[in-house]
């Protein structure tokens, strides 16, 4: 029989790996690039560019005052972390894929929250240029882990077979009931 600690065996390494990779890549960018510096990796498609995002995804709320942004993003970050921990605790034993997905999302969330505490904004550096000259907003490894983890959780949610409701299952006749003749 599997126990909830089996879920932790998948959650903890995933969480630690995602957080470590996120923070290590950000430190490397901060150490090697000045703000705004760009290294072309694949011309016309992919660059490493040191930028900072004071807002959320796609610079959401970036124009608000720093105090309001910090309170909002630190508060929502702590709330998200709390909810992820509740989801992890509520997993059935043996749900290793969901455990890993929650570990990835939590590692990414804490990675970006760490940036907000240390720098007051999030360090981004993955810079893609798409077809037609469209520029995708620059992002980081924490964002990647969050998207992958949420994608796995959503896929599981949509493709997991539904368990029948106890109320909708036909009830069995009492053991002492005898079939009527007629």
**What is the end-to-end distance?**
48 Å
- Indicate the mean pLDDT: 84
Query: How many strands, which pairing sense, and closed or not: the largest β-sheet?
Result: 3 strands, antiparallel
Radius of gyration based on Cα positions: 23 Å
Strand order of the largest sheet: 1-2-3
Order of helices and strands: HEEHHEH
What coarse outline follows from CA principal-axis ratios?
globular
Strand content: 5-15%
Given the structure, what is the number of helices? Answer: 4
Helix amount: 40-55%
Low-pLDDT segments, ≥5 res: none
Pairing-aware structural class of the strands and helices?
mainly alpha
The tally of beta strands, per DSSP, is: 3
Question: Secondary structure elements and their pairing?
Answer:
Elements (H helix, E strand, L loop, with lengths): L3 H29 L5 E5 L3 E8 L12 H25 L5 H24 L2 E7 L12 H19 L23
Give a quick rundown of the structure.
With about 180 residues, the chain is mainly α.
Structural summary, described in words:
- The protein has 182 residues and is mainly α.
- 53% of the residues lie in helices and 11% in strands.
- The protein has a domain at 29-57 and 65-157.
- The protein has helices at residues 4-32, 66-90, 96-119, 141-159; strands spanning 38-42, 46-53, 122-128.
- Strands 1-2-3 form a three-stranded antiparallel β-sheet.
- Strand 1 and strand 2 form a beta hairpin.
- The longest helix has 29 residues, at 4-32.
């Amino acid at each position: 029989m599997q126990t909830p600690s089996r879920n932790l065996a998948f959650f903890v390494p995933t969480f630690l790996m995602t957080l470590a990779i996120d923070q290590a890549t950000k430190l490397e960018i901060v150490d090697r690039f000045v703000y705004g510096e760009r290294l072309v990796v694949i011309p016309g498609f992919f660059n490493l560019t040191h930028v900072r995002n004071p807002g959320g995804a796609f610079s959401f709320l970036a124009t608000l005052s720093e105090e309001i942004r910090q309170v909002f993003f630190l508060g929502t970050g702590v709330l998200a972390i709390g909810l992820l921990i509740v989801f992890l605790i509520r997993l059935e034993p043996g749900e290793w894929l969901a455990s890993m997905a929650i570990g990835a999302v939590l590692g990414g969330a804490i990675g970006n929250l760490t940036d907000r505490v240390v720098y007051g904004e999030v360090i981004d550096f993955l810079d893609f240029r798409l077809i037609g000259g469209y520029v995708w907003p620059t992002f980081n490894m924490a964002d990647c882990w969050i998207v992958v983890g949420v994608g796995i959780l959503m896929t599981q949610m949509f493709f997991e077979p539904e368990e029948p409701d106890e109320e909708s299952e036909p009830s069995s006749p009492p053991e002492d009931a005898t079939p009527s003749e007629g």
